[in-house]
Write a structure and sequence with these properties.
The complex is a heterodimer of chains A (219) and B (268). The mean pLDDT of chain A is 88. Chain A has seven helices and eight strands. With 219 residues, chain A is of the alpha/beta class. In chain B, helix 1 crosses helix 5, helix 2 packs antiparallel against helix 3 and helix 3 packs antiparallel against helix 5. The chains are: A alpha/beta (219), B mainly alpha (268). Chains A and B meet through helix 2 of A and helix 1 and helix 10 of B.
Chain lengths: 219, 268
Amino acid sequence: MISFRSVTKSYRVGDRRKTVLDDASFDIVRGQSLGVLGVNGAGKSTLIRLISGASMPDRGRIDRRGVRVSWPLGFAGSFNGSLTGRENLRFACRIYGASIPKVTAFAQDFAELGAHLDMPVRTYSSGMKARLAFGLSMAIEFDVYLVDEITAVGDAIFKKRCDEVFAERRKVADVIMVSHSMGTLKRFCTAGCVLDRGRLTFYPAIDSAIAAYEDILTR
Amino acid sequence: MGLAVSGEFQRFRDALALQGRVVWALVLREMRTRFGHSRLGYAWALGEPVVFILVLSALKSAAGGGVSALGTSIPVFFFTGIVPFLMFRRTTQQLGSAISANRALLNYPPVRPVDTLIARALLEIATMLVVALLIGSVFAGLGLPIMPDDPLRFLGALSAAALLGIGFGTFNAAVSGVMKWWPTVVTWMLTASLFITGVFFVIDFMPPSIREALAWIPLTHAIALARSAHYPGYESEVVDVGFLVISGLVLLAVGLLAERALRRRSEE
């Protein structure tokens, strides 16, 4: 369970502040896949960053209680450009206490980088970086996977392999997902929540979350 | 109750193990990025104090009549000044850029800004100790009187210099996040400090007015302390260990608080 206790978070747009969460307390329970809905600028990506721990709340407390949360899927911004792909994998394994040979073997096979794995990451194309990041997040066994808009990387065959391996991981791991596509959310998520003006409201079924979101749109 | 306590303890232990893993991963990575790809990083770590001691000793021998300000050996005199000075300056510089240089890594949820500070402090202190030992061994091999009269006290002076650097560096890392011009000011301060903290001279031999003014700089105390520990016949009257340690701790505390307070603003 991931607990938010009296969490306030705002960010600056120009010279105004946008409130993402206003003194919000809630629990994200395990064993469900959660779709996050909200209008543009409501702060869905910031919420994902708060859950992952990449952003700190302005006030309040977020407790992950040993739940291993991934970084947003496919996000390659943690890679150091001057280090090789292999060295970057090694660093991630060390901080998560994962087996370096196992993760490297999996990610190498999955990302299809071949000899590029021993080249500096700055020489990679954005597709190669995304594939490596995706492979790495699948190789490390997270309890919760964060997805901020699924972005397809690679060709149709690679996409199919992504779907397969992600489906495999989802049997034991949860997903928290932001998407503009209602179809995607329905496909991946069982439950939903709507972020609106600093409040997060939970719905046990994704369909009722989508209905509530559509109400906001017509407001 | 017992269960709750052991649960808390378990969580504390898990958190500690995680932080240990993160710091160690960062240390290994820093070694790779700083020293790994070319040997120049190592060469400079060792070369800087060596060149400093050689050049100054040559100048002093030529211009100063070959008499050391303290003791019998000119190179040893400069060694006892430059080692604590570099311990301070290197920790200051490395910690000052620790957070901004590792910004990308902070996207890994377990990596926190303070971990990058700890990792760089550990690596810098270890590097400086190895460098001092290497130079000291060569000096000993050449028959120079390099062994401090009170080795533990000498180490204490180095620790105090490191603490000062860690405090100042942490403060700078936090402030640099919101004031982009601050690192330039720090560079000026570090450059000036080389000339006024007693690396080249003995503070006790200065006129009282200058001595009192320079005693306000904490680093001056660390260098005078190192020399007092090294030379059996010299005990600096300026050294105030309480002032030295408290300066370091206050800088560190203010730095950590500033890091917390300014984190959100530097994220944006």
